[in-house]
Amino acid sequence: MIGWPVELRDDTVFGPVVLRPLRRTDGRAWARLRATNRDWLEPWEATTPLGHVQAPPTFHGYVRSLTAQARAGSALPFAIEHNDELVGQLTVSGIMYGSACSASLGYWVSQHVAGRGIVPTAVALAIDHCFAEVGLHRMEINIRPENAASLRVVAKLGLRDEGVRERYLHIQGQWCDHRTFAVTTEDVPDGLLARWQRTREAMQ
């Protein structure tokens, strides 16, 4: 079961990658990061269909909502840090137990650190935690077919391509197809991070 708060860390050759809860004190850095990366992020971010628009919460309200979800056991909302700098977010959502024991994972990262191996490391850390500590069996990531940067993340990690989900999420005014990538505990008996570290060493 979920214990919260949680902090996960991997000390990589390119600097430490840390997953930790988003804090109210992150407000200015978070807002600056989102503003700087608006054009980089907006094409891929889920929206709400017309007629169901809700006013965005304050940052403090946003953090409070994420914390409540984590304590309720329905999500794991992490900030991504690299070299002590906030560079993005990663959220495990839709956590189910019972016969499914599964969840989905999504993330965003600042363009200025993209391609450095930070996101694959963060994803591997989160998935290993979900398998070893939360007790889940399956994790999936859903990606727009046009999102080349995110497709490279799952390729580096060796996640299984399970095909296209048509009109899966609402993004920028339309229902968009996504490709589903998944991994189960049987796929990574030694952990996904260990597999990614071996891949990373081979790439150097």
From TrEMBL:
An annotated Gene Ontology molecular function: protein-N-terminal-alanine acetyltransferase activity
Gene Ontology cellular component terms for the protein in this record: cytoplasm
Pfam family for this entry, one: Acetyltransf_3
InterPro entries according to UniProt: Acyl_CoA_acyltransferase (IPR016181), GNAT_dom (IPR000182), N-acetyltransferase (IPR051531)
Taxonomic path: Bacteria, Bacillati, Actinomycetota, Actinomycetes, Micrococcales
Domain of life: Bacteria
Domain N-acetyltransferase: 17-186
Keywords for the protein's UniProt record, in alphabetical order: Acyltransferase, Transferase
PANTHER family to which the protein is assigned, alphabetical: [RIBOSOMAL PROTEIN US5]-ALANINE N-ACETYLTRANSFERASE, GNAT FAMILY, PUTATIVE (AFU_ORTHOLOGUE AFUA_3G00765)-RELATED-RELATED
Family the UniProt entry places it in: Belongs to the acetyltransferase family. RimJ subfamily.
Protein name per UniProt: Ribosomal-protein-alanine N-acetyltransferase
